[in-house]
Amino acid sequence: MSLGQTGGADAATVGPAEAHGWLRRIVIFNGSIQSAMALMVPAAAAALYAWAASASESSTLALVPIFFIDVITAALGIGLLALVHVPTLRRGAEQPVGYFADLVDGARYIVRHAFVRWVLFVLAVIFVLMVAPSNLTPLMLVRSFPGATEAQDVADMGILEVSFSVGKLLGWLIVGAWGGGKHRIRLIACSSLLFGAGSAVDRRHLGSTPVHLADPSRPPCGG
Hints:
The chain is mainly α. It has one domain. 71% of the residues lie in helices and 0% in strands. The chain is built from nine helices and no strands. The protein is globular and about 65 Å long. It starts with 7 loop residues before the first helix and ends in a 9-residue tail after the last helix. This is Major facilitator superfamily (MFS) profile domain-containing protein.
């Protein structure tokens, strides 16, 4: 739901915290809040969809009230963010002002700093290898773990999404309490490798662990 998906708007408001040395912890705990929202949203969406599907004639019509809920929560998120006072950043007289000027300045900064280019390249590879396959998990779930009814498939997808959110929330909280140490790039690389290894083991030997744990009577993929 859009209440927790204000995206770049709320991320832009944490920039001034760098002046006080709070930026890293604020970003970490903000991510924890986002993960907590992501933990509740799939379960709530599955429950709302099941209720709307039982009250309507078709599963397609059941999506209509859910879309309206998304509009309402988006309005709530925008309204709450509008109440937050964000101080104006001070610029030098020679610095250009404007969105495209900032965009060009950021691109020049990336080009001039080899370390930033390397970090962005690593993150791009990680996102290509992780984000695209993760979007296919609902298809894998429906094909490999078909439920007896459509409502069962919706519940299974809710369980799968909630399990990812639990892991994200725990990760954000651990890093927030720990601080991440001095070698943060090494931490990112190791966590990405562990995520990939865990996903490969889960897919090869267990199928879909969250759904199998929720209903042990359903065999793993290929079982």
